[in-house]
Specification:
Blueprint lengths: L24 H4 L8 H24 L15 H8 L3 H13 L3 E6 L3 E6 L58 H14 L5 H19 L6 H7 L7 H24 L15 H20 L6 H24 L4 H33 L1
Helix pairs in contact: 2-4, 3-4, 7-9, 8-10, 9-10
């Protein structure tokens, strides 16, 4: 009797990385025996997102909190859509994972919540694990080896691995982050005639990913302003994005120091519509000064200062247009203006001192 399954699994098409990894400790450790499969799946989704945060933190320092711990953003709506359950169900599953010590949820700002993900604890010694068998996955064909021929040393692969046990210290599996790094190392060691084309396509893919990652904050037109000046270089595109958000952070700190609550909606991209609607024109004006007129000696510093001024002005404008200027709010705006004037005064004094030193 033959099967009629389409794309049946064979030795030539074993799954590589197109799956969600569920930690075997969740099954083998009696501590988690009350976890449902839905809770395990939610933890697996959080784990996959966590590997992305860790990868980016190692690459550019993003997705780290004030203590240097990686975290994720993962809304209940997104999780409910992926697991095909209700948002209320996701809330209940999160509470279960919190009680099990597998995640921690901390409020960040007014509406955001940071999620910290923990590795499941391995079973204690002496406990007979339920899934202790070895898992061999290989797409390589077997070849006969002559008796006298020397044995070849096995090479590290992202596929040919063994899961010897469920304990985290002995589980011989690669994480998705390690797989990504292994692929990068493989590409870097192969020299071909099309190496330049591969690098270009890789940069374009990274730029597309960067654009998609910040699409909810930076409009497409904003990217269209500075990407032509990047000439397909991902590092340059990343620099523009990072500088924009650093300028936004510096501007926000001015208002917080002046007395505006840190969770005020006016300070966020999600609620201050002036940021998204006018940022493209601001970037265009800055680039015009930097590259067309070539009047800027320090383009990097100029772009940061220009964007910081943009965010400061748009925050002030939004407060004036949408809030009644109470004495407290008026004082806050005055304090921000004073902070800016003091900083400009210090910068002018430093420039004067430098000029005086050169003349002397």
């Amino acid at each position: 009797m033959s099967t009629n399954l389409d794309n049946i699994m064979t030795a030539t098409n074993l799954p590589n990385s197109n799956y969600i990894p569920i930690d075997l400790n969740l099954i083998n450790n009696p501590q988690y025996e009350n976890l449902s499969i839905e809770a395990m799946m939610l933890h697996a989704l959080y784990t996959m997102r966590m590997t992305c945060s860790i990868y980016n933190s190692q690459k550019d320092g993003s997705w780290l909190d004030e203590s240097g711990h990686p975290y994720i953003y993962f809304s209940n709506e997104e999780a409910a859509l992926l697991l095909r359950v209700s948002e209320r169900k996701i809330t209940n599953l999160k509470n279960v994972l919190i009680e099990a010590g597998l995640i921690q949820v901390l409020r960040h700002g007014l509406k955001n919540y940071r999620i910290y993900v923990a590795n499941p604890m391995p079973p204690e010694k002496g406990i007979v694990v339920k899934l202790s068998f070895k898992n061999y996955t290989s797409t390589k064909t077997l070849q006969a080896v002559e008796k006298d021929s020397p044995k070849k040393k096995s090479q590290l692969s992202t596929v040919d691995r063994e899961a010897k046990s469920a304990a985290s210290e002995t589980q011989d599996l690669l994480t998705s982050t390690q797989k990504h790094l292994a692929k990068q190392n493989t590409k870097a060691t192969k020299v071909t005639e099309n190496a330049g084309k591969i690098d270009d396509s890789a940069d374009n893919s990274l730029i597309d990913g960067l654009r998609a990652r910040y699409a909810h904050l930076l409009p497409q037109q904003a990217f269209n302003r500075f990407l032509p000046f990047c000439k397909g270089d991902y590092k340059k595109a990343r620099w523009f994005v990072d500088t924009i958000f650093k300028a936004k952070f510096a501007s926000t700190q001015q208002y917080i120091k002046a007395g505006l609550p840190a969770e005020a909606e006016v300070l966020t991209f999600e609620h201050n519509s002036y940021f998204k609607s006018d940022i493209s024109d601001a970037i265009a004006k800055a680039l015009e000064q930097m590259y067309r007129y070539k009047t800027v000696q320090n383009p990097e510093g100029f772009f940061f200062a220009f964007m910081k001024g943009f965010f400061t002005e748009k925050t002030r404008q939004y407060l004036v247009d949408h809030y009644k200027l109470t004495p407290e709010l008026q004082q806050t705006l005055s304090c921000v203006q004073l902070i800016i004037q003091q900083k400009n005064g210090r910068q002018k004094l430093q420039k004067t001192q430098k000029v005086a030193q050169k003349v002397s």
